Amino acid sequence: MLIQTHNLFVHLGQRLVLESINMGVEKGEVVTIIGPNGSGKSTLLRALIGAVKPTSGQVMRSPGVAIGYVPQRLHVDETLPMSVRRFMSLPHRPPRAELNAAMAAAGVSGLEQRQVMSLSGGQFQRVLLARALLEKPDLLLLDEATQGLDHRGSAGFYHQIEAVRQELGCAVIMVSHELHVVMRRSDRVICLNGHICCQGLPEVVSASPEYQSLFALDHEEEAVYLHRNHHSFSHNEELH
Known about the structure:
Helices cover 37% and strands 23% of the residues. The protein is of the alpha/beta class. The protein has a domain at 1-66 and 139-149 and 173-240: P-loop containing nucleotide triphosphate hydrolases (Rossmann fold, 3-Layer(aba) Sandwich). The strands form two sheets. It has a six-stranded mixed β-sheet with strand order 5-6-7-3-8-9, sandwiched between helices. A hairpin with a 2-residue loop joins strand 1 (3-12) and strand 2. Helix 3 packs across helix 4 (121-133). The radius of gyration is 18 Å and the shape is globular. The two termini are 23 Å apart. The model is unreliable at 218-222 and 229-240 (pLDDT under 50).
């Protein structure tokens, strides 16, 4: 396992946000976390990277595992002039070759001199991805990274993530509210609502009563959609 949790509990103030979370991610695996608003998805990712301290339980990382993190949103002061190159160099300036390679892998080569505030939403998300790739991650965490993007921008971003995963061989944990994307692009789905309601292959999760109850989806319609559109980019499939 690259990373796993054991009986993880997290309180924020007096509120219990995560309860008895047991999960893990293998090398090359694509895991998507879904759940309603307030279900603890972002808190779980922040606990995995060490930004939130568990109340009890453990987060265990494989020795030397490198983690890249793309946040849900990042506020940049609109009055602060900053080029993409300068933004990519905070807090430590990487070697130029590494910066250029990360920009290329994220699909934003040539934007180094652009002002950050002049970027479109999709371009800025790819710059955040490029920053995460500077870590040469074994595990890439994406917290609703396509939020605010239109359908075309979202599709392009997910395509870029797949290209990155194939190039680096990294595992991916995505938090997403785009259920149709989850079912096409995940090896495994974790349905979260403060605790893990269900987890497993997309087809298994979509058929579970817990998933049906949370998202009020018609099972027969979902099954038809999965049959027509499930083209998982599982690392297992790539071996065939």
